[in-house]
Design brief:
The complex is a heterodimer of chains A (about 575) and B (about 450). By secondary structure, chain A is an alpha+beta fold. Chain A is about 20% helix and about 15% strand. In chain A, strands 1, 2, 3, 4, 5 and 6 form a 6-stranded mixed beta sheet that branches. A 6-stranded mixed beta sheet of chain A has the order 16-15-20-19-18-17. Chain B contains 18 helices and 13 strands. Chain B has a 5-stranded mixed beta sheet, covered by helices on one side. In chain B, strand 9 (about 285-290) and strand 10 (about 295-300) form a beta hairpin. The longest helix of chain B has 21 residues, at about 415-435. Classes of the chains: A alpha+beta (about 575), B alpha/beta (about 450).
């Protein structure tokens, strides 16, 4: 004992299958076991939800060091010379057992094996065993644990229970009640995280059936998280249902571009086609959740109104011709640059270079919506802070480009270069646009692309790599999930070529090399690189912008310095 | 040895001609005098009396009441609640309902004394949903007591206030499990809570310390408060103090409820002398001594071992008839005293069919939280129902045991035990009947046999 190194007071040593580990006091046994590489199978336990202990899969043997009840002195085991362990004869649930000093856990005993086999058998007897047509197959905990911990044969010869097969719980979630193992994760999620208590069980015992309360629907913007946390194929995404086997899909880390929250995502694609987006765990940002709206964004990739080829005056042209036309306009002077809070940090850096080359300062358009206090903030641009960090802008943007409108009316501006911003939505009239030449870099058709002299198509967030700075000033990176449309150049290439054409010199467009330039020039990003950024992002020094009146209210893992009045409607 | 006399202390006035359940009648019989005296004492003294009395809970588990009260968290600063568990629904048990129907003020008095002892300001009587009559009687009785200043604000001019509300259950056996009951009382589905951390004594009703006591237990508290804990220990036997009410049902000549000193009467005396023995021309086959979840006993089996009598260990060699009816003796022979519901089966009963009946009940009542109980109880029901109404296979006996063995000890609440012990014990004691049931089915039943469910 005396040789043990001094530990911080809140750490306790527990023994799991003979391996000692120090964990914070109160850590539950499932998490503690993970740290020593011991898997404790479970269904109902979820690290971000309350503990109910109902699936009984995580049963383990638990013991505590024996002490003499009278003298409180340790009782030693003469056989081992160590303190004797009093093992509790009943198995305990791992999820509901918290680390306390001297706690001993066994997960490899015959009793634990028998418990797991029993629970697995019980879960399977009324399960439809329709893995061949089940969307969850391949990522199904019941499938995995049955293989690992089940007996491998069935003793059940009775009729299985019959339950509803395709209950529409809401606009995005379809339920197969026969597959449900009644773990209640979805119910707890709705109640505890989404704060929209609409799910519950009706009937009793094995006939218990998950359903919505009468007159209610599972329709909140977080409903698809129930599909993610469903350990089996009971809750399915209506969008993804029967579309693709999960083992064919490639996972690419993404960032939800919906708002300044920057929820971490996983983009699932096959052969250049995205099939679904799910949350990626980041305990500092979005835990294991994301919005439903953020999951639907992949549909913009194949949208009918996608800009696929450069054009001049509405006529399709080659990329070189479009670039030359743009270069001519830029060189002619009187240029205004409208950057974007949706552009990546790298693009914003190049946009700034472009603005500098044409001797102007860039403008930005803000998008303000209603925050939902969870994972959708009121700033609907994912990267306004990136624009501040890269020096693209120095003050917070407003929703309307009134200054630009006045300049057009005064004849001070002849050319506007817009990086993905619909200028009519930002307050410019068609008449004003008609007075100037617009160079539009964008992904989809809109009033601005229709009015533009030169249109150069760009990539959606799923077709490129880059980084955003979220509301916490956390720099987070994402990677290219699918290739862009044929003939559409990488946005960094397009911007770097425009910078060169405008006389701003040669700037590297390779992401890695570009970052050496960025890190050298931008003080708060010094020493960073895209490649070395951790998967969960990195906070950067936000001191320079601390006083700015950002519009976000409180969301998960984010508390604004002062809550702006406009944060929630 | 003939049976001892009944000693009706709790059931003193049950079925007494002329005794009514109103306050006037109760007062005429010395009602609320014990409470008045108790209110002049220190609450701690009352708790000590209960501890001294060795009173064990009458709901089924037999947990010492005084210990339960000691575990209550009194330092949290939160209010302490007392809940009267009147969700009597263990098959074979029908004692609490007589107290509530015929002597409700006894329960109210016992409740108020317990509340005073534990500084409880609000008590609830959680009554089974299927007992609307009892609920109405209790509500009327509480109102009477309230009007007489025996319940409510500044009771009897003191500065102690405590009210009682009656809450009707929603009709589920699991509502009788104390944490399930608490959930139900909070307006939720009666899913029992995990312990730890939700021990009622610390995190009970509305996350406040809570005492949940059975109806009969609280009546015993009144008795203890009256005669003192010391005197109470002289009733019954050591560690099984006080009286026990036995609800005898099934194949005896005189089924009914009988109150005896705990441990002073044997099973044989109860069934043969008190209840008049088996029906004419029949013999006893089996008995479940403590409500349908208790393990069954087979007449003819012997129980041997050592037991403590005073300070000495003595050998015992009992038949079912010789077993003293107390918690410890019944526990020693592998069953339990439970709620006192004695279910008697004679030789006309086929054990497979009896078990099919019990399994149907438990599969219907599992709350559905824990996998082993939820799926296992229904599986066992499906097997026994198939055996009775369809094809019975020889391997079903082993299968039933295999299923039942996967349930107890692996669930949140004791329902896991309740639903699996019948199957386990029926198979252990009547295994041959299960193996040979396919053959037995082919022979005609006696005309008087009960119809199958």
């Amino acid at each position: 004992m005396s040789t043990a190194p001094a530990k911080p007071a809140d750490l306790v040593t527990v023994n799991i299958d003979g391996k000692e580990i120090a964990v914070p006091k109160g850590t539950n046994v499932i998490e503690a076991a993970k740290l020593v590489g011991v898997e404790i199978p479970h269904y109902c336990y979820h690290p971000k939800l309350t503990i109910v202990g109902n699936c009984r899969m995580c049963l383990i043997e638990m013991g505590m060091p024996a002490v003499d009840p009278a003298t409180k002195t340790p009782i030693m085991d003469p056989a081992t010379g160590k303190q004797k362990i009093n093992w509790i004869p009943r198995p305990q649930i791992g999820c509901g057992t918290n680390a306390s000093p001297g706690l001993h856990i066994r997960t490899n005993t015959p009793m634990v094996k028998d418990c797991r086999e029993g629970v697995t058998e019980m879960l399977l007897i009324n399960h439809p065993l329709d893995c061949p047509i089940c969307d969850q197959a391949g990522e199904c905990k019941l499938q995995e644990h049955s293989t690992a911990y089940g007996r491998g044969y069935s003793r059940f010869v009775e009729q299985k229970n019959v339950k509803p097969k395709r209950t529409v719980l809401g606009p995005r979630v379809t339920l197969d009640d026969e597959r449900c193992i009644l773990c209640s994760r979805c119910i707890r999620f709705s109640k505890e995280i989404a704060k929209d208590d609409v799910l519950g069980f009706i009937d009793r015992g094995s006939y218990s059936t998950l359903t919505c309360y009468p007159g209610k629907q599972l329709e909140n913007n977080y409903s698809l998280n129930t599909v993610d946390i469903c350990p089996v194929g009971a809750l399915t995404s209506t969008d993804f249902r029967f579309k693709m086997r999960v083992w064919f899909l490639k996972q690419t880390p993404g960032i939800d571009p919906e708002s300044s929250v920057g929820a971490n995502t996983e983009v699932w694609s096959r052969e250049g086609v995205i099939y679904r987006i799910t949350p990626r765990r980041n305990d500092e940002v979005n835990d294991t959740w994301m919005t439903d709206s953020g999951r639907a964004l992949y549909k913009q990739v194949k949208a009918a109104d996608r800009l696929l080829a450069p054009s001049i005056n509405g006529n399709s042209t080659g990329p070189d011709m479009a670039l030359k036309a743009a270069a001519d306009l830029l060189k002619a002077g009187s240029v205004a640059v409208v950057g974007s809070g949706r552009s990546t940090v790298e693009e914003q850096f190049l946009t700034r270079k472009l603005a500098e080359a044409v001797k102007t300062t860039a403008m930005l358009v803000s998008r303000v919506g209603q925050g939902d206090r969870l994972l959708l903030s009121s700033d609907r641009n994912p990267n306004v802070r990136g624009a501040l960090v890269t020096g693209l802008i120095s003050a917070l943007p407003s929703q309307k480009l009134t200054g630009l409108a006045a300049d057009i009316d005064a004849g001070k501006v002849k050319t506007i270069l817009s990086v993905g911003e619909d200028l009519t939505a930002a307050g410019l009239t068609a008449a004003q646009l008609a007075k100037v030449s617009v160079i539009y870099l964008g992904t989809h058709q809109n009033a601005t692309s229709a009015a533009a002299k030169v249109v150069i198509p760009t990539l959606t967030v799923f077709e490129k790599s880059g980084s955003f700075v979220n509301q916490q000033f956390r720099l987070q990176k994402f990677a290219k999930a699918v290739p862009g449309p044929t003939g559409v150049a990488d946005d960094l290439v397009t911007l770097a070529e425009l910078v060169a054409a405008a006389g701003g010199g040669i700037i590297p467009f390779n992401l890695g090399v570009l970052w050496t330039t960025i890190a050298a020039e931008i003080k708060s990003l010094a020493g960073l690189s895209h490649a070395s950024l951790p998967a969960t992002g990195q906070l950067i020094d936000a001191g320079a912008w601390a006083g700015l009146p950002f519009c976000e209210g409180e969301t998960l893992h984010f508390k604004p310095a002062a809550v702006p009045a406009a944060a929630y409607a | 040895m003939s049976a001892p006399q009944q000693r009706r202390l709790i059931f003193a006035h049950i079925d007494e001609p002329g005794y009514t359940n109103d306050l006037a009648c109760y007062l005429k019989h010395g009602g609320y005098e014990v409470m008045k005296r108790a209110f002049t004492r220190k609450p701690e003294e009352l708790i000590d009396e209960v501890k001294k009395s060795g009173l064990r809970g009458r709901g089924g588990a037999g947990f010492p009441c005084g210990v339960k009260w000691t575990l209550v968290d009194r330092k949290s600063g939160k209010p302490i609640y007392l809940i009267v568990n009147a969700d009597e629904s263990e098959p074979g048990t029908f004692k609490d309902r007589y107290i509530m129907h015929q002597d409700p003020h006894q329960l109210i008095e016992g409740t108020m004394i317990s509340c005073f002892a534990n500084n409880v300001k609000q008590a609830y009587i959680y009554i089974r949903g299927e007992m609307p009559h009892g609920a109405r009687i209790l509500e009327k009785a509480i109102q009477e007591a309230r009007d007489a200043n025996l319940v409510g604000k500044n009771i009897l001019g003191s500065n102690y206030s405590c009210d009682i509300f009656v809450h009707r259950g929603a009709g589920a056996y699991i509502c009788g499990e104390e944490t399930g009951l608490i959930e139900s009382l909070e307006g939720k589905r009666a899913n029992p809570r995990i312990k730890p951390p939700y021990f009622p004594a610390v995190l009970g009703l509305y996350q406040c310390p809570t005492i949940v006591n059975n109806v009969e237990t609280l009546c015993h508290v009144k008795l203890i408060s009256d005669i003192g804990g010391e005197a109470y220990t002289r009733i019954g036997t050591p560690n099984n103090t006080g009286t026990r009410i036995f609800c005898v049902s099934g194949h005896v000549q005189k089924p009914g409820y009988y109150e005896f000193e705990a441990g002073k009467i044997t099973m044989g005396q109860l069934l043969n002398d008190v209840c008049g023995g088996p029906l004419p021309g029949r013999t006893f086959k089996a008995v479940i001594p403590g409500g349908s979840s208790a393990k069954i006993l087979r007449f003819g089996e012997r129980f041997k071992g050592k037991r403590k009598v005073g300070a000495e260990m003595v050998d015992y060699d009992w038949g079912v008839e010789d077993v003293p009816m107390d918690f410890d003796s019944l526990g020693m022979i592998g069953t339990m005293g439970g709620s006192g519901g004695v279910i008697v089966m004679d030789d006309t009963v086929n054990m497979v069919e009896a078990l099919a009946n019990i399994n149907a009940f438990y599969s219907h009542e599992s709350c559905g939280q824990c996998t082993p109980c939820r799926e296992g109880s229904l599986w066992m029901k499906k097997i026994t129902t198939r055996m009775v109404h369809g094809e019975a296979r020889e391997q079903d006996a082993a299968l039933l045991k295999g299923v039942a063995d996967q349930i107890p000890g692996r669930t949140i609440c004791a329902f896991g035990e309740a639903c699996s012990w019948p199957t386990q014990s029926f198979l252990a004691k009547f295994g041959d009947e299960f193996k040979g049931y396919a053959e037995a089915k082919k022979t005609a039943k006696p005309a008087e046999a009960a119809p199958l469910i």
